[in-house]
C-alpha cells in the first residue's frame, strides 16, 4: 500500500492527495494522484478558509481510505494555531479540534509547513476552481482540461 501526502490549499477550496515520492520537488504528472476542487461558500477570513480546506481535505482522505504519511500546508498561521489549539479561545477552536480528531485517523501522520511554491499545483487548481460550478473530483488519471494546471511547470 502506498503512503500519500496531502497538500491542501484554499483561496476558494482545493484538496490534493499526492503520492509520496520522497522528494522536495513539486509534484509531477506521475505523482499527483487526485484532487477535489470546490468553491468555498461564505465570507471567511483567509485563516478560516485555510483551516476549512485542511479539515475538508482530511475528511476527503478519510472517506477514500487513503493512508496519509504527511500533510503539508503553506498556511503557517493555521499550523501555529493548530499546535496551540488548547490555548485557542477564538471561533477557530472547534475547527482546530475537528482537525485534530481527523488527524488521529492517520497513525503516524505529520503536519508540516511548506513554502508556498511547493504548492504550485494546488494554487493552479484553486484558480481553475474559480471557473467551475459545483465541484471537481478526480483520482489517478488527470482529466485533460487540467493537465497543464496540475503540472504548473
What does this structure look like?
This protein has 153 residues and is an alpha/beta fold. It is built from five helices and six strands. Strands 5-4-1-2-3-6 form a six-stranded mixed beta sheet, sandwiched between helices. A hairpin with a 7-residue loop joins β1 and β2. The radius of gyration is 14 Å and the shape is globular. About 8% of the residues have low confidence.
Quick summary of this structure?
The protein has 153 residues and is of the alpha/beta class. 35% of the residues lie in helices and 20% in strands. The relative contact order is 0.23.
Annotated CATH topology? Nucleotidyltransferase, domain 5
Pattern of helices and strands: EEEHEHHEHEH
Low-confidence stretches: 19-30
Number of separate strands: 6
* Overall radius of gyration: 14 Å
The CATH superfamily turns out to be: Ribonuclease H-like superfamily/Ribonuclease H
* Largest beta-sheet characterization: 6 strands, mixed
Rounded mean pLDDT score: 73
State the helical fraction: 25-40%
Count of alpha and pi helical runs: 5
Structural domain count: 1
Can you name the CATH architecture?
2-Layer Sandwich
Principal-axis shape equals globular
Give the end-to-end Cα distance, rounded to a whole number of Å. 29 Å
Text of the CATH class: Alpha Beta
Strand content: 15-25%
Strand order of the largest sheet: 5-4-1-2-3-6
Find the structural class using helix and strand composition.
alpha/beta
GO molecular function, one term: RNA-DNA hybrid ribonuclease activity
Domain RNase H type-1: 30-128
Protein name: Ribonuclease H-like domain containing protein
